[in-house]
Amino acid sequence: MSVALQGKPLVSIGLFVYNGDKHIRQALDSLLTQDYPNFELVISDNASTDGTRDICLEYAERDKRVHYHRSEVNMGAVRNAEKVFELSSGEYFMWAAHDDYWDPAYIRLCIETFEQNENAVLVTARHEFINADTGDVILTNNGITTTRLNAFQRFRAIASQRSYLGDLFYGVHKSNVVRKVLPFRKIFPTDVLFLAGISLHGDFITRPEILTRARGGGASSNNKRYTGSKELHSNAFFRRYPYFGWLVAANGIAFQSDKFKLYEKFGLALLLTGDYMYFGIVRMAAWLHLRLQKVWPGAASYTREMWHRAEESRRRPGGAGLKYSSHGSESGVEIGKGGGKGTSK
Q1: Could you give the CA distance from residue 191 to residue 226 in angstroms, rounded to a whole number?
Q2: Domain encompassing residue 200
Q3: CA–CA distance, 211 with 205 (Å, rounded to integer)
Q4: How far is CA 107 from the centre of its chain?
Q5: How many domains does the chain have?
Q6: Which of 13, 26, 60, 267 has the most CB atoms at less than 10 Å from its CB?
Q7: Is the pTM of this model over 0.85?
Q8: Using one digit for the tens of pLDDT, what is the confidence trace for 133-171?
Q9: Residue 331 is assigned to a structural domain of this protein
Q10: Percent of the chain that is helix, strand, coil (3-state, to 5)
């Protein structure tokens, strides 16, 4: 072992891919130029039919840190994400998407954060969503930091989905915690349910720097495709009403956990049911808004004003410690005790 590797834990990067030849070179280049000295890059190719295989083999031939594995049968994205973790061997692990790219300091800074926070189980950084065609920034996601929360508060913050947190999935995890939570629950949103399970074991920390960039328009952005997917929902009712499936699964995680007392489990059930009803109201309002615009052209500005008033009322200080930012082009949440602090600037 070289001097540079001594004392540095192995980080496994798991890139799971299907037909990613358009952007995978940029993803591989940004991962292989990480300035952290001790990592492996495991690629699980889910029976791609484009040039993905040839590109990956090219990189594997010239860099011994790259390990390429290919399935001859398409196993689905969820199973492929599980497989790439099973193929890894590091103390830390991060999933990687073929159409994202990372700052060279990303892994090193995440590991430094782990070393400074022994209760952390997931570390990531702020990231930008960019237009796949133009490269323009669509959205900046500020993530979540839960260092002042207990297990009950963390679980509710993640499972409620009041702010988009799915991209935390692509942060750096402690591998031993991931093993406790896998396999994935085959219910949409799989990533959020997984993160809810992870949150029972420790803190999430989002670094302040923007260190990752994700392209919009990829498979992960197509919720309609996955909410009705048989890969995720063996139950036809949950395919028809996916968010009800989420509610059942989230409560199932809470009731199976030994982190909560019985009254806390019932409390979470009530809170998550309230969140589910909130989503239902929002979706119904959006449906009514679209139809109202057809007969009242001024509906957009009027309903937007009503929405902002309702949101400001909901974000009153001294509440449960949750304060979500959704102003303009930024979204995120920083949660602390006694009336949280929004992170949008």
Answers
A1: 12
A2: 9-223
A3: 14
A4: 17
A5: 1
A6: 13
A7: no
A8: 787 888 888 888 999 899 999 998 888 765 567 688 999
A9: no
A10: 45, 20, 35
